[in-house]
Amino acid sequence: MLELPFDLPPFEAGTVWLVGAGPGDPGLLSLLALHALRAADRVVCDALVDPRILALARPGAVVEAMGKRGGQSSARQTDITDRLVSLARQGLRVLRLKGGDPFVFGRGPEEALALAEAGIGFRVVPGITAGIGGLAYAGIPATSRDTNSAVAFVTGHGADGEVPDEFDWDALAKGAPVMVFYMGLRHLDRMVTRLLAAGRRPDELMAVVCDAATPRQTVVETTLAGVVDAVAAAGLKPPALLVLGAVVGLRAQLNWWQPR
Ligand code: SAH
User: pTM of this prediction?
Assistant: First the structure.
């Protein structure tokens, strides 16, 4: 247990905590996340959780990997929710550990809805989302007063696996001076086409940040017109964030972190 001068909520048996593990660096875990790791009987983690974080689980806790990677299902979503419900019904303290924040592009809402429908008690512990904390480790702020007073977080991967089209790309491209894309590598060429068609400048700064806040972090700075070739030339692989806009230029001075 953690020694703190205040109480954290007890992890009740038969409940599920849906916890965000942050983008990678174990130091970015919240106190509640660490408390949950120390108390859980069962840890059900997704593919993006760093092994150094799993190593913090209570000795004796069983860790099982169940998650999706880059939209390829290594486990079906209904299997995951069924598993959470069944473990909780066995009276276990179930920690559902997800990369970043559980409620940002992470299927956390679906899992919480399934628990609510099954009548299982749950708690949500927000985490630092990769699109903010991961970018910070690359020296790129999500906003700065001199560059942007709005930012859009966009998934490059719709529910059907295609480029999402339930929102107005033109409006978003015109309205959001900085855009941060999650899961953006697969359909990158089509997203770039849409952004250019919506009037974003080809020479606008863009960065690709892979494995942010981990020892493997790789950052490529490029432009909107150059990003597809830059990704191919560097052989970049998911998980990757893409960020478009003037904040990328601040990295020249703010690149504070050396991963290796
Ligand atoms: N819930 C997570 C996002 C899950 S979607 C969060 O809040 O961060 C998975 C996508 O998140 C990846 O495809 C990638 O775009 C992004 N991502 C998560 N962790 C990352 C990391 N360490 N480095 C770069 N991108 C990351």
Answer: 0.95
Q: Omega into 239 within 30° of 0, i.e. cis?
A: yes
In a domain, 108, yes or no: yes
Boundaries of domain holding 195: 131-254
Q: Among 79, 112, 128, give the residue marking a domain's end.
A: 128
Q: Which of 50, 105, 244 to mutate to test the pocket of ligand 1 (most atoms within 8 A of CB)?
A: 105
pLDDT single digits (tens) 176-233: 999 999 999 999 999 999 999 999 999 999 999 999 999 999 999 999 999 999 999 9
In the chain, the number of structural domains is: 2
26 Cα to the center of ligand 1, angstroms: 15
Q: Are 16 and 66 in contact (CB under 8 A)?
A: no
Which residues does the annotation mark as catalytic?
Answer: 46, 68, 183
User: Cβ(115) to ligand 1 under 6 A?
Assistant: no
Select from 80, 99, 128 the last residue of a domain: 128
Q: Are residues 114 and 206 in the same domain?
A: no
**Contact of 205 with 249, CB cutoff 8 Å:** yes
pLDDT band at 159 (very low <50, low <70, confident <90, very high): confident
| Distances from the Cα of 101 to the Cα of 137, 235, 246, angstroms | 16, 27, 25
CATH code for the domain in which residue 106 is found: 3.40.1010.10
Q: Is 29 in the pocket of ligand 1 (CB under 6 A)?
A: no
141 assigned to some structural domain: yes
Ligand 1 pocket, 208 CB below 6 A?
no
Q: Specify the 3-state DSSP secondary structure of 192.
A: helix
Q: For residue 204, what is the domain's CATH number?
A: 3.30.950.10
